[in-house]
Automatic annotation (TrEMBL):
Residues 333-420 form the Alpha galactosidase C-terminal domain. The lineage of its organism: Eukaryota, Fungi, Dikarya, Basidiomycota, Agaricomycotina. One of its GO terms (molecular function) is alpha-galactosidase activity. Its EC number is 3.2.1.22. Belongs to the glycosyl hydrolase 27 family. GO terms for biological process: melibiose catabolic process. PROSITE patterns: ALPHA_GALACTOSIDASE. This is Alpha-galactosidase.
C-alpha cells in the first residue's frame, strides 16, 4: 500500500511549472536597472560581468547578466520590424555582447515590455512577440525580463493578463532556445495564480525602492492580493509583507519575484541590507543583484557572498519559508517569525525586527515547527547562526543543541537573525503529504 502510493506520487510530473528546464532553483544574477537605470552601454554590462567573475560571484551561483530597459534604438528595423539596439551604446550589437558574456561563463538576459512601449518609453513587444523572441534567440539571449508598461488596458482579469503574457511565453518556446521567462506585471491580476505554468517567475509588487520602510503613496496598496495600483517606490520591508501570503504558490520553476536587490546601493544600513538579503533568500525570490558590482564595499560583498543564505535560497526542496507570526511592537513596527523546511529534514527560521528599538524574544520551537507537530517540536535541535562565521571562517556558526526555545534572542532595530535547525535523529515527526 505504502509502496504503490509512493509509485503513484512519483508518476506525476515532478512539478507543474513552465516546461523549459530552467529556474529549478531561483535564478541568480545581476541587472543594470537599480544602479544604472537608462544609463547603460556595452561597457556597463561587460565591466559588470568581468567583476562578477573577479569577485567569485559566479562560483556562488550568480549566473545571469541582465540588460534592463533602454538598450533600444529609436525604432525597429523599418523593413523587417525586428528590434534594433542603440548603435551608439552598443556599437558591436547585442549578439557580440552576448557572445562576450558567454565567453566569461555567464548567461545573458534582455528586457522588454508586454506593451506598446517599455517603461522607459522605448518600443515594446506587444503584438511583436514572435519577431522579438526570434531575434533575442538569434542574439543568444538566455533570459527575458518582461515588463507591463503601456499595455493598452489588456489587463484587469487574470485571463486577459494570462493571454498577453502567454503570447510571449509561446513565442519564446517556439524559438527552441531555453530562455528563462521572468514576468514583471507587478502582481496585477494575481500572477501567482495564473502564471505558474507560463513563466519561471513573476514580480509580486510595484518596483522596490532603496529604503527600509517608508510609506510612499506611489506604492499605495497595503495588501497585494487585491491591489489595483502596484506603482513603484515600494520600501523593502513592505515587499516582505506583500510576499507573506503568496509563498504557497511558488516552487521549482515558478517563483515569486520580490524585485532586484538593492544591497550596496546606499539607501539602507548594514543591518537593513542583511534583512533584505535574508528574507529574499528565505522566501525563494530570485537573487538578482542591483548594485555596481565593479565598486563594492567589503560590507556589501560580505552580504551578497553569504553562502549559507544562498544555500537556503537554492535548497533543492524549493519550499518558501512562511510567516508564522507578526507581532506589533508598541513603539512602532513589528516582530516577525518566519520558518521553512529544507532538504534532508533540515529547517530554517528567522526573526525580523522592523521596530525602532532592539527587542529580546524567546523563540519557541512550538511556533517554529508548527507545521511539523508538537511531538517534533518537543525534540532537540542543533542550531547554526547563518550570520555568524565559524572558527574556520565559514558562514553558519554552530550554537549547540537546543530544546523548547531559543531563549533571550536579542534582535537589533531593523535586524534579522537567521538559524538553520538540524533535528537530532530521535525527534518524532508527523508524516503528511509533503514528507513523501
Ligand atoms: C576567488 O577565489 C579564488 C580561488 O578560490 C581566490 O584565490 C581569490 O582570492 C578569490 N577572490 C576573491 C575576490 O574573493
Ligand atoms: C495574443 O496574440 C494574439 C495573436 O497574435 C492576439 O490576437 C491577441 O490579441 C493577443 N492577446 C493579448 C491579450 O495580447
Ligand atoms: C517548449 O514546450 C514544450 C512543451 O511544454 C517543452 O517540452 C519544450 O522543452 C519547450 N521548449 C523550450 C525551448 O522551452
Ligand atoms: C576589504 O577586504 C580586503 C581583503 O580582505 C582588505 O585588504 C581591505 O583592507 C578591506 N577594505 C576595507 C575598506 O576594509
Ligand atoms: C523568556 O523566558 C524566560 C525563562 O522562561 C523568562 O524568564 C523571560 O521572561 C522570557 N522572556 C520573554 C521576553 O518572554
Amino acid at each position: 500500500m505504502a509502496l504503490s502510493l509512493l509509485a503513484l506520487t512519483l508518476a506525476l510530473p515532478a512539478v507543474l511549472a513552465l516546461d523549459n528546464g530552467l529556474a529549478r532553483t531561483p535564478q541568480m544574477g545581476w541587472n543594470t536597472w537599480n544602479h544604472f537605470g537608462c544609463g547603460i552601454s556595452e561597457d556597463t554590462i561587460l565591466s559588470a560581468a568581468k567583476a562578477m567573475v573577479a569577485n567569485n560571484l559566479t562560483a556562488l551561483g550568480y549566473e545571469y547578466v541582465i540588460m534592463d530597459d533602454c538598450w533600444h534604438a529609436a525604432a525597429r528595423d523599418p523593413d523587417t520590424g525586428a528590434p534594433v539596439a542603440d548603435p551608439s551604446k552598443f556599437p558591436n550589437g547585442i549578439k557580440a555582447l552576448a557572445d562576450e558574456v558567454h565567453g566569461l561563463g555567464l548567461k545573458f538576459g534582455i528586457y522588454s515590455s508586454a506593451g506598446t512601449y517599455t517603461c522607459g518609453g522605448r518600443f515594446g513587444s506587444l503584438d511583436h512577440e514572435e519577431i522579438d523572441a526570434q531575434t533575442y534567440a538569434s542574439w543568444g539571449v538566455d533570459y527575458l525580463k518582461y515588463d507591463n508598461c503601456y499595455n493598452e488596458g489588456r489587463a484587469g482579469t487574470p485571463k486577459i493578463s494570462y493571454d498577453r503574457f502567454n503570447n510571449m511565453s509561446r513565442a519564446l518556446n517556439a524559438t527552441g532556445r531555453p530562455i528563462l521567462y521572468s514576468m514583471c506585471n507587478w502582481g496585477e491580476d494575481g500572477p501567482w495564480n495564473f502564471a505558474v505554468d507560463i513563466a519561471n517567475s513573476w514580480r509580486i509588487s510595484g518596483d522596490i525602492h532603496d529604503d527600509f520602510d517608508r510609506f510612499d503613496d506611489r506604492c499605495p496598496c497595503t495588501d497585494i492580493l487585491d491591489c489595483k495600483l502596484p506603482g513603484f517606490h515600494c520600501a523593502m520591508s513592505r515587499i516582505i509583507d506583500f510576499a507573506a501570503p503568496v509563498g504557497q504558490k511558488a516552487g521549482p520553476g515558478k517563483w515569486n519575484d520580490l524585485d532586484m536587490l538593492e544591497v550596496g546601493n546606499g539607501g539602507m544600513t548594514f543591518d537593513e541590507y542583511v534583512t533584505h538579503f535574508s528574507m529574499w533568500a528565505l522566501v525563494k525570490s530570485p537573487l538578482i543583484l542591483g548594485n555596481d558590482v565593479t565598486d563594492m564595499t567589503n560590507e556589501t560583498l560580505s552580504i551578497i557572498t553569504n553562502d549559507a543564505l544562498i544555500a537556503v535560497n537554492q535548497d533543492s526542496n524549493g519550499s518558501p519559508a512562511s510567516r508564522i507570526w507578526k507581532r506589533t511592537v508598541a513603539e512602532g513596527g513589528d516582530l516577525q517569525l518566519w520558518s521553512g523546511s529544507l532538504a534532508n529534514n533540515q529547517f530554517v527560521f528567522a526573526l525580523m525586527n522592523t521596530s525602532p528599538n532592539s527587542q529580546t524574544v524567546n523563540v519557541s520551537f512550538a511556533d517554529v515547527f508548527v507545521d511539523q507537530g508538537a511531538a517534533f517540536a518537543a525534540g532537540t535541535f542543533t542550531l547554526y547562526d547563518l550570520w555568524q562565521k565559524d572558527d574556520a571562517g565559514a558562514w553558519g556558526k554552530s550554537l549547540g543543541d537546543f530544546s523548547g526555545s531559543v531563549p533571550g534572542v536579542e534582535v537589533g532595530t531593523h535586524q534579522t537573525k537567521v538559524w538553520k535547525a538540524v533535528p537530532k535523529s530521535t525527534n518524532a515527526r508527523r508524516r503528511d503529504r509533503r514528507d513523501l
